[in-house]
Amino acid sequence: MAQILLWVSMIAPWFILFFLDKKKLKRFLSAAFFTILLTSIFWQTAEVENWWDIKNNLFFLTTIPAFTYGFTPVITLLIFYFTFHNAWLFFGVNLVLDFIQGCIISPFVFEKLGYYQMNKMSNFGLFLLLYSFVPIIYLYQKWYDKE
Fold first, then answer.
1. How many CB atoms are located within 10 Å of the residue 81 CB?
2. Domain coverage including residue 76
3. Both ends of the chain: CA-CA distance in Å?
4. Which member of 20, 22, 122, 130 lies 3.0 to 4.6 Å from 98 by CB, making a disulfide possible if both were Cys?
């Protein structure tokens, strides 16, 4: 069952994008790819620092979970798509969603399904780490828009 959910978390979210305006979506596509880069680095760092251990993953992925390539960039795109026009809204929505991810989804879904096990980092620490990416990605998109 966990393997099916891993595949779903990587592939299924991308289908949501078919219902959005393509021109507006393309504007934020590089921010989604930048998010994949940042989260990939953060998962690699987590392995070195022993923040957590990946326990269950797709056969071709080792230390980076499948949702990094599906769920994460699609959520990033959706947040940018609907909130980027208002910085306060953007940061507020990210605050709430990162809290849900770090303090609810991580311990009660991902850890329970055996995707990973927290070691040296608390779930609140995970929330703070996730939220620390928000200004970086926001500034990246601001810079990208100026080009």
1. 16
2. 2-10+28-146
3. 45
4. 130
Q: How many CB atoms lie within 10 A of CB 89?
A: 13
Number of other CB atoms surrounding residue 12 within 10 Å: 13
Q: Which residue has the higher pLDDT, 67 or 138?
A: 138
Count of domains forming the chain: 1
Distance CA 94, CA 22 (A): 23
Helix (H) or strand (E) holding 34: helix 22-49
pTM of the model: 0.91
Contact 121, 106 (CB under 8 A): no
Residue 117 forms beta bridges with which residues?
53
Contacts of 66 (CB under 8 A, 6+ apart): 6, 7, 9, 10, 57, 58
- Structural domain contains residue 20: no
Average pLDDT over residues 70-83: 95
Give pLDDT, residue 147. Answer: 67
Answer whether residue 67 is part of any domain: yes
Q: Which token pair is 92?
A: 């507020």
pLDDT tens for 106-124 read 999 888 888 888 999 999 9
Specify the range with the lowest mean pLDDT, choosing from 29-33, 61-65, 68-72: 61-65
